[in-house]
Design a protein that fits this description.
The complex is a heterodimer.
Chain A lengths: L4 H19 E4 L3 E7 L2 E6 L3 E4 L6 E7 L3 E4 L3 E4 L5 E12 L2 H7 L5 H20 L17 H18 L4 E12 L2 H70 L3 H16 L5 E5 L15
Antiparallel strand pairs in A: 1-4, 2-3, 2-5, 6-8, 7-8, 8-9
Helix pairs in contact in A: 3-4
Chain B lengths: L1 H14 L2 H5 L4 H33 L2 E4 L3 E7 L2 E2 L11 E4 L6 E7 L4 E4 L9 H5 L18 E2 L5 E12 L2 H6 L4 H17 L4 H7 L1 H18 L4 E11 L5 H70 L1 H19 L2 E5 L34
Antiparallel strand pairs in B: 1-4, 2-3, 2-5, 6-8, 7-8, 8-9
The chains are: A alpha+beta, B alpha+beta.
């Protein structure tokens, strides 16, 4: 019976598929794998791609997530060296960096087992570092005093050192404070203090406002008086200048003081007797002297 | 027609059973032939099915990438192409079917939003929607009530919403188990970081913008440091005083408003009084100017008159004097209201004259401003 090349091809394809499925495994990007031979760790694959393995039961492949995980510690109370109790919670970005070390340490690569260990590490690092910084390093309006980022960096360093010393096969990428707080009873005390601060502020603002308003008004009054005084002085100066200018013209009158005197007197007379005047005159006054020596009846 | 057709068919059918009748000569041969016929036809069907399956298998490798997303083909788990080139844009694509290739779709371009999970008191969305809040207790329980601590050790509530876009999809998808959780924690951190350096009044009223900027700068910096492959588009920060002290904080605000009102009133008084004073000052100076001009002109006019009269006067001073005197008196007499002429007594002795001035004096006229005398 002759074999059809088609059938043959199908056979080959099936064989290849079978071999691939049993002898090859894939490591996906974002994953790492460790290979155990008869239960003993014999290799690790950290780069994505296809790899060869002996089929079960000789070799077994364990895949681990290599991406950065977000781990959050507990929100717990810690004492600062100056006696404040501070609640702090930090979060950590970590990843498996060495699967061969990670895998046997944490119950065949269990992430949750690793997080239990991390929790203890993070807690001790947090308590230790907070125990070295006074309260003012956590919150302060003074930039030099505030050590927020420095504290985070110190905690990170501490956790990294611990992880490295224990060969966990973990890399701590970053660490940050997620939450800060005060014990419940302290918040009440803070509220009381804030309450009195507000009252002080209210009265301060009131007095400040009144004070400034009075200042503005009085300075306006002063300024206006100054303006008027200046104006009066200026007006006097101008008048003086006018008189000085007029004085120059007086030189003319000196040519004949009698005439000048006469003109002034005449002017004055005319001005004083301008209207609503009652004149009582005798015949000695010209032109009424014409009435003198009238013939008597 | 169909009956016609049926008939020959029926005939064939009748012949069919006759065939085995002629077959017995080679019964085995006929049986195996029938078997091989059957096999051949079923093989044919299998072949077709196989071809269809293979076609389907490869055909299943076609996929479309929608706008607003990118795709990466993982061949045996490894991205095809390096870096940016691994990203397939919108359109029609083909990959090897599973398990050779895996297509990972990554949403890109669309804005994602995340809100902070710390810093706000315990409330429920229904309460928020109704704009009410749970009644405040005397203290804040750290386990349930969130708050942030300000630089001057006060307690305030703050929350933030961050809108961001994935700009490095490869990094964002393949390097983090939950990038959005990390974005959220960066935002949480930024709230505490910013609050730690602001006084309560700056964060709440005086420098709200500065506070927002600080939160945004911090979160942007953290996202960059942690290489989350996202870009911040917009951030919004809400800050309120603790509910327990709402009235007290409002009282401060009211006091501020009152102060501003008092200051504004004082300033408008200042403006008014100063502009009045300026006007008055200008008018006083102008009066001075006017008087100067008048005086100067008056004297000049008098001087001119003097110069004009001088030659005449010199001709005969006595006559000049008499003429002027009489002339002026005539004018004065013409203008005078009452004139009383007292004739001399014939004996030449002075006459005694008694005058009673009215008890009610004539209504005094206001002194007239000095008029420019006629040049005459």
């Amino acid at each position: 019976m002759k074999k059809s090349p088609f059938t043959f091809a199908i056979g080959v394809v099936l064989m290849v598929a079978f071999v691939l499925l049993t002898f090859v495994f894939q490591v996906r990007k974002s994953e790492v794998a460790v290979v155990t031979t008869f239960g003993k760790l014999t290799g690790q694959k950290t780069e994505p791609g296809p790899y060869f393995k002996w089929p079960w039961p000789i070799q077994k492949v364990h895949k681990l997530d290599q991406r950065i995980q977000n781990f959050e510690g507990k929100f717990e109370e810690t004492l600062t060296p100056d006696g404040y109790s501070l609640l702090a919670m930090v979060y950590v970005g970590w990843k498996i960096s060495d699967p061969a070390q990670f895998f046997p340490k944490f119950a065949n690569g269990s992430i949750s087992e690793a997080e239990k260990t991390l929790e203890a590490l993070v807690r001790s690092a947090k308590n230790e570092i907070i125990g070295q910084h006074p309260f003012a390093h956590f919150i302060s309006t003074n930039e030099k005093e505030l050590k927020f980022t420095e504290i985070e960096a110190e905690m990170l360093k501490k956790v990294q050192a611990q992880v490295l010393a224990n060969n966990y096969g973990i890399e701590i990428k970053f660490l940050g404070v997620k939450k800060l707080g005060l014990p419940e009873s302290v918040t009440q005390a803070v509220f009381e203090r804030m309450h009195s601060e507000r009252q002080v502020l209210v009265s301060k603002i009131q007095f400040e406002g009144e004070e400034q308003a009075i200042k503005i008004r009085s300075s306006a009054d002063r300024e206006s008086a100054r303006l008027l005084n200046d104006a009066d002085a200026e007006a006097t100066r101008i008048r003086g200048a006018g008189e000085a200018a007029a004085a120059k013209s007086f030189a003319v009158f000196q040519q004949n003081p009698e005439l000048a005197n006469l003109i002034l007197k005449l002017n004055a007379l005319e001005l004083t007797l301008k209207d609503k005047t009652t004149l009582i005159l005798d015949q000695g006054t010209p032109p009424l002297d014409l009435l003198k020596d009238l013939p008597r009846k | 027609m169909s009956e016609d057709h049926n008939h020959p068919h029926g005939h064939d059918h009748q012949h069919g059973p006759e065939k085995p009748a002629t077959a017995p000569l080679e019964q085995d041969d006929t049986g195996s032939r029938a078997l091989s016929d059957a096999l051949r036809s079923s093989f044919f069907i299998v072949k077709i099915v196989m071809v269809v399956l293979v076609a389907l298998f490869f055909g299943s490798g076609f996929f479309t990438v929608n706008p607003q997303e990118k795709a990466v083909i993982l061949r045996f788990g490894k991205p095809v192409g390096e870096g940016e080139q691994a990203l397939l844009g919108p359109g029609f694509h083909w990959s090897f079917p599973a398990p050779i290739d895996e297509v990972v779709r990554i949403p890109i371009g669309q804005i994602q939003s995340v809100s902070s999970s710390v810093g706000w008191y315990l409330t429920a969305p229904e309460l928020e929607a109704a704009k009410t809040e749970p009644p405040p207790g005397p203290a804040l329980n750290p386990a349930i009530d969130g708050y942030v601590l300000t630089g001057d050790a006060n307690i305030i509530h703050a929350r933030a919403t961050l809108r961001y876009r994935v700009t490095d999809p490869l990094q964002n998808t393949f390097a983090f188990t939950s990038a959005s959780n990390l974005v959220q924690n960066a935002l949480n951190n930024a709230l505490f970081f910013a609050a730690a350096q602001f006084t309560v009044d700056n964060a709440l009223t005086r420098d709200v913008t500065g506070f927002r900027e600080r939160v945004r700068a911090r979160v942007t910096q953290l996202l960059e440091q942690q290489q989350l492959g996202v870009t911040v588009e917009q951030s919004d920060v809400q800050v309120i005083p603790p509910r327990q002290l709402k009235d007290k904080f409002n009282a401060v605000l009211e006091a501020g408003v009152k102060r501003d009102k008092a200051l504004n009133e004082a300033r408008s008084y200042e403006n008014e009084i100063l502009s009045k004073a300026r006007g008055e000052a200008a008018s006083r100076i102008n009066t001075g100017e006017t008087e100067r001009t008048r005086l100067v002109e008056f004297v000049a006019a008098e001087a001119k008159k003097f110069s004009d009269l001088l030659p005449e006067y010199r001709k005969d001073p006595e006559l000049f004097f008499r003429l002027r005197q009489t002339e002026t008196l005539a004018r004065v007499l013409a203008n005078a209201q009452e004139k009383i002429f007292v004739a001399a007594r014939p004996d030449g002795k002075p006459r005694e004259l008694r005058i009673t001035i009215g008890r009610e004096p004539e209504k005094r006229r206001l002194p007239e401003p000095p008029k420019k005398p006629d040049a005459h």
